[in-house]
């Protein structure tokens, strides 16, 4: 399927087979030649067109810099150079409004189910289904709207972080998440933080590949207990220890920055523990 942006108008229309000229919104300029379009309907009733286009490969200049990153809970990303990106709980920011509609959704679903059961019991000719209840549908849409908004905000934040990391560094070393999940359990925010970590790794993988940078994945074994200055093994540090002084060399460490430095060393040394590299 070969499609073209409509010539008749500005860059806000795309011509699709069978559907004709459609108006769309896009944050970036779309190239003239489109190879294929996939149209997707989101739970909030918005149509998204995923375009496959040809474009000039974007490369960031080489900076000669290498960075190790530790992934955390309070801070999402901690760099071996001391840079920190905090975890932002987008779910909490909208939690109250979402909860308002979640309560209504639960109540209206229950009510609708009762009425459906009544239809069934009385052998009504055209029994209603859930989607026939307008108030239920409205509440369902509102919950979906808030979920979509949270996802968009979170992804936007992750895109900004990963673009900056890829732009500023030639080599990025991060931990293998499979091993990390077992190491650090953190009740409530665990699921959300885990999801951000996974998404971030995915973004770093393809952005590094696009821009000619390298991503190295290492096993995080002992990275938070070994001194990055002298290699002294201080034993296991519990999660509440945020900083410590190395008995070997006397260096005072920020727990996370020290871990990021160790990760960088693992990824850029001979790499015995390198798991994969993208
Ligand atoms: Zn030391």
From TrEMBL:
<dbReference type="GO" id="GO:0003677">
    <property type="term" value="F:DNA binding"/>
</dbReference>
<comment type="similarity">
    <text>In the C-terminal section; belongs to the transposase 35 family.</text>
</comment>
<dbReference type="InterPro" id="IPR010095">
    <property type="entry name" value="Cas12f1-like_TNB"/>
</dbReference>
<dbReference type="Pfam" id="PF01385">
    <property type="entry name" value="OrfB_IS605"/>
</dbReference>
<feature type="domain" description="Probable transposase IS891/IS1136/IS1341">
    <location>
        <begin position="53"/>
        <end position="185"/>
    </location>
</feature>
<dbReference type="Pfam" id="PF07282">
    <property type="entry name" value="Cas12f1-like_TNB"/>
</dbReference>
<feature type="domain" description="Cas12f1-like TNB">
    <location>
        <begin position="197"/>
        <end position="263"/>
    </location>
</feature>
<dbReference type="GO" id="GO:0004519">
    <property type="term" value="F:endonuclease activity"/>
</dbReference>
<keyword id="KW-0540">Nuclease</keyword>
<dbReference type="GO" id="GO:0006310">
    <property type="term" value="P:DNA recombination"/>
</dbReference>
<keyword id="KW-0378">Hydrolase</keyword>
<dbReference type="InterPro" id="IPR001959">
    <property type="entry name" value="Transposase"/>
</dbReference>
<protein>
    <submittedName>
        <fullName>RNA-guided endonuclease TnpB family protein</fullName>
    </submittedName>
</protein>
<dbReference type="GO" id="GO:0032196">
    <property type="term" value="P:transposition"/>
</dbReference>
<keyword id="KW-0233">DNA recombination</keyword>
<keyword id="KW-0238">DNA-binding</keyword>
<keyword id="KW-0815">Transposition</keyword>
<keyword id="KW-0255">Endonuclease</keyword>
<comment type="similarity">
    <text>In the N-terminal section; belongs to the transposase 2 family.</text>
</comment>
<dbReference type="InterPro" id="IPR051399">
    <property type="entry name" value="RNA-guided_DNA_endo/Transpos"/>
</dbReference>
């Amino acid at each position: 399927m070969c499609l073209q942006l409509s010539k008749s108008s500005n860059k806000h229309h795309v011509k699709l087979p069978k559907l004709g000229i459609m108006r769309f919104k896009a944050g970036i300029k779309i190239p003239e030649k489109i190879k294929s379009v996939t149209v997707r309907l989101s739970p909030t009733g918005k149509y998204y067109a995923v375009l496959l286009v040809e474009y000039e490969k974007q490369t960031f200049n080489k900076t000669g810099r290498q960075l190790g990153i530790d992934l955390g809970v309070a801070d999402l990303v901690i760099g071996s150079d001391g840079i920190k990106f905090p975890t932002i709980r987008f779910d909490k920011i909208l939690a109250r409004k979402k909860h308002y509609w979640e309560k209504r959704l639960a109540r209206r679903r229950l009510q609708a189910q009762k009425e459906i059961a009544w239809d069934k019991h009385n052998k009504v000719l055209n029994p209603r289904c859930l989607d026939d209840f307008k108030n239920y549908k409205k509440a369902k849409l509102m919950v979906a709207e808030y979920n979509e908004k949270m996802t968009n905000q979170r992804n936007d934040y992750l895109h900004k972080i990963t673009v900056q990391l890829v732009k500023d560094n030639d080599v990025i070393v991060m931990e293998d998440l499979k091993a990390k999940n077992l190491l650090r359990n953190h009740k409530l925010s665990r699921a959300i933080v885990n999801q951000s970590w996974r998404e971030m790794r995915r973004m770093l993988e393809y952005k590094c590949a696009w821009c000619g940078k390298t991503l190295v994945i290492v096993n995080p074994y002992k990275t938070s207990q070994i001194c990055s200055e002298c290699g002294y093994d201080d034993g296991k540090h519990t999660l509440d220890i945020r900083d410590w002084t190395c008995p070997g060399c006397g260096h005072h460490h920020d727990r996370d920055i020290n871990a990021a430095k160790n990760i960088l060393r693992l990824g850029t040394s001979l790499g015995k523990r390198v798991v994969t590299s993208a």
